[in-house]
Design a protein that fits this description.
Layout lengths: L1 H5 L5 E3 L2 H4 L23 H8 L3 E4 L3 H8 L2 H10 L4 E2 L12 H11 L5 H16 L2
Parallel strand pairs: 1-2, 2-3
Helix pairs in contact: 6-7
């Protein structure tokens, strides 16, 4: 939090279990892991996203996928609210490696749970914008 506040023009990208486990209120046992079940109010990640426009989230790993898939209705709302600062920064090189977020996102847009705009931003346009490529 201090770094986000001290460097408002620097863009920070949250990633991994240490970040994504904090989408909802969690126990010490769940911290840094893969929490399951409904996302409970009081998570640090949504609060920090609302407070600091220089915070981004990379959803490419299993932890980012888990954050939205474990409570899909919450996940759709979260992705819609923060659609301009979420990215699918794929770091998988082998075509045989699973990418469960791709299927989740495809299903979400095909069933109308998120808009095509939200899908396209998260799945690529935001990264282009962030990296200015």
């Amino acid at each position: 939090k201090r770094a986000l506040k001290k460097f408002p023009r620097l863009q920070f990208i949250g990633h991994s279990q240490a970040f994504w486990s904090e989408v909802g209120a969690i126990s010490e046992k769940e911290r840094g892991g893969y929490p399951v079940g409904k996302v409970l109010p009081g998570g640090a990640v949504p609060r920090l996203f609302r407070e600091y426009p220089n915070l981004w989230g990379d959803m490419s790993a299993g932890s980012g996928c888990n954050a939205v898939k474990r409570d899909p209705e919450w996940g759709y709302a979260f992705m819609t609210e923060f659609q301009d600062r979420l990215c699918f920064g794929l770091d998988i090189c082998a075509p045989s490696n699973p990418t469960p977020l791709v299927d989740f996102m495809r299903d979400a847009v095909n069933t109308g749970k998120i808009t095509r705009t939200v899908h396209d931003k998260i799945m690529g346009l935001n990264a282009v914008n962030l990296l200015k490529v």
